[in-house]
Write a structure and sequence with these properties.
Length: 356
C-alpha cells in the first residue's frame, strides 16, 4: 500500500480541505486560484504569471502524461515556459502515479520534489472551485503533516514583476528588424513566436529604459501580480508612445499599455484562467477561443477618446484588448501564443510584425 502524508488546505475564511501529499513535503501559502484547462500543467506551473499562487486544477486527474524534459534551444526552453516552477503549489482531485507519454522525462511528483513545490490530491476540487467562485480568489495555506504551520501570504502586495523579470539584457534570434521585448514575466513561447517570424528580439528587464535602444517595435510581455507595481514600465511605455513605433502587449502588457494610455485597472473576482475563454473582435462577428491567465482587467470605460476596445470577453463582457485609433499600438488580454491552449489567435503576432 502506498504511503502518503496527510495535507490540508486552509483558506483565509477558515474553510478546510483535507487531502494527501504527492509533491515536495513542505508547508506553503499563497493566493488560491483555479484553472479549468484539461491539459497543460507543465506549461502552467512554469508560467511566471502564477508566481505566488496556489493552483487548483478543475480537471479531475493530474500527472497522467508526466513532464517533458528541461531542454533548451538558444537559451529558450523547448517545452516549458520558464526555467523553473513559479506556482507555490498545485492541487488536484486525483493524481496518477503512473504516467505515459512519448515525451515524458519524469513524473509530475518527482518534478515537484526536485523543484521543492508541494502538491496535494484527494481534494474535492469541485467543492473548492465552487467556493472560490462564490467568495472570489482568496489567500490560503497548505500544511503538510509533520511540517509545521506557515503564515498567509498575499502576493498582490509584492512587486512580482520585479521578482520574475530578467536581470540583464538578452538577445534572441536574428533578422533585419529588431523588437524590444519587456520582460514582466515573459513566457518562453512569446520569444519563440517572435524569433520564428524572423526578427531579432532584445529582452530587457521590466524597469529598463529601452528607449535608449535602436529598435523597430516594442512588445510588452505577460506577468504576475498587480500592474500598479510596475509603474517604471508604464513610464517607459509612455516615452515609447511618443516615437510612434509599433507597440503590442499581451496580458500584463495589455494592462500596462492601458495604464500608459491613461485607463484604470481593477481586480477580477476570481480571474480568467483556462483554455476556453471566448472573445469577440470589436466591429466584427468573429469570435475566438483563447487561453488566459490573469487576475486583473482593464476598465474599458476609462479609455481615453483616442483609444478603443479591441476584444471583449463573451462570458462576462470584460476588456480583452485595446488599440489606438490612429497609431500602431494594440494589445490583447489573452495569450495568442497559448502554451498551453488553443492557437486560434497567433495571427496577432503576424499583425504586429507587419507593422514593423
Amino acid at each position: 500500500m502506498r504511503q502518503t502524508k496527510k495535507a490540508v488546505l486552509i483558506l483565509e475564511d477558515g474553510t478546510r480541505f483535507e487531502g494527501k501529499s504527492f509533491g515536495y513535503e513542505a508547508s506553503t501559502s499563497g493566493e488560491v486560484v483555479f484553472n479549468t484547462a484539461m491539459t497543460g500543467y507543465p506549461e502552467s506551473l512554469t508560467d511566471p504569471s502564477y508566481e505566488g499562487q496556489i493552483l487548483v486544477t478543475t480537471y479531475p486527474i493530474l500527472g497522467n502524461y508526466g513532464v517533458p524534459p528541461e531542454r533548451e534551444k538558444e537559451q529558450v526552453s523547448e517545452f516549458l515556459e520558464s526555467d523553473h516552477i513559479h506556482a507555490r503549489a498545485i492541487i488536484a482531485q486525483d493524481y496518477s502515479y503512473d504516467h505515459s507519454h512519448w515525451q515524458a522525462a519524469r513524473s509530475l511528483g518527482d518534478w515537484l520534489k526536485e523543484q521543492h513545490i508541494p502538491g496535494i490530491y484527494d481534494i474535492d476540487t469541485r467543492a473548492l472551485t465552487r467556493h472560490l467562485r462564490e467568495k472570489g480568489s482568496m489567500l490560503g495555506k497548505i500544511i503538510v503533516e509533520g511540517c509545521g504551520d506557515v503564515e498567509f501570504y498575499d502576493p498582490n502586495k509584492e512587486n512580482l514583476v520585479a521578482k520574475v523579470s530578467t536581470r540583464q539584457v538578452e538577445t534572441h534570434g536574428d533578422g533585419d528588424k529588431t523588437v524590444v521585448l519587456v520582460d514582466c514575466g515573459v513566457k518562453h513561447n512569446i520569444i519563440r513566436c517572435l524569433t520564428r517570424r524572423g526578427v531579432k528580439v532584445i529582452l530587457v528587464p521590466w524597469d529598463y529604459d529601452f528607449n535608449q535602444i535602436d529598435y523597430d517595435g516594442l512588445f510588452i510581455s505577460n506577468g504576475p501580480g498587480n500592474p500598479d507595481m510596475a509603474q517604471a514600465t508604464v513610464d517607459n511605455i509612455r516615452k515609447a508612445m511618443d516615437t510612434g513605433k509599433p507597440i503590442c502587449g499581451i496580458c500584463m502588457g495589455n494592462q500596462l499599455l492601458s495604464k500608459a494610455a491613461g485607463a484604470s485597472i481593477y481586480k477580477l473576482k476570481y480571474g480568467h484562467r483556462s483554455h476556453n475563454q471566448p472573445v469577440r473582435r470589436i466591429g466584427t462577428d468573429k469570435c475566438f477561443v483563447t487561453s488566459q491567465n490573469h487576475g486583473f482587467a482593464v476598465d474599458s470605460d476609462t479609455l481615453p477618446e483616442e483609444w478603443e476596445t479591441l476584444f471583449v470577453n463573451m462570458n462576462d463582457g470584460t476588456n480583452e484588448g485595446i488599440r489606438h485609433k490612429t497609431k500602431p499600438f494594440f494589445s490583447a488580454q489573452f495569450h495568442p501564443e497559448a502554451s498551453s491552449g488553443p492557437k486560434d489567435t497567433e495571427f496577432l503576432f503576424d499583425e504586429f510584425i507587419s507593422l514593423l
